[in-house]
Amino acid sequence: MEINLLSCDAQRPDKRAIAKCIEEISTAVNSSLSNELTSILLEGDAVQVQLNDKNAGTALRALRKLNIDYEIIE
Predict the structure, then answer these.
(1) Strands across the sheet with 68-72, in order?
(2) Where are the domains of the chain?
(3) Which of 5, 18, 21, 39 would give a disulfide with 47, using CB separation of 3.0 to 4.6 Å?
(4) 5: left (phi over 0), alpha (psi -120 to 50) or beta
(5) What is the spatial distance between Cα 31 and Cα 35, in angstroms, rounded to a whole number?
(6) Which domain of life is it from (predicted)?
(7) What CATH architecture does domain 2-72 belong to?
């Protein structure tokens, strides 16, 4: 499943928690790439991430908990 991470609406976004979440839910992202993607997301640009289909529900729940808006592509 592919999703676009659109924005983070948290008043004080936790950059470390977001980066860790992206690293855990995506299929091909390491820690340095997740930090870079987090910076891009917090600057206001969309980020595309490939999710593991087995854990998609858990991943989407984790994103909502961090106040990250997303759209499902596939």
Answers:
(1) 47-50, 2-8, 68-72
(2) 2-72
(3) 5
(4) beta
(5) 6
(6) Bacteria
(7) 2-Layer Sandwich (3.30)
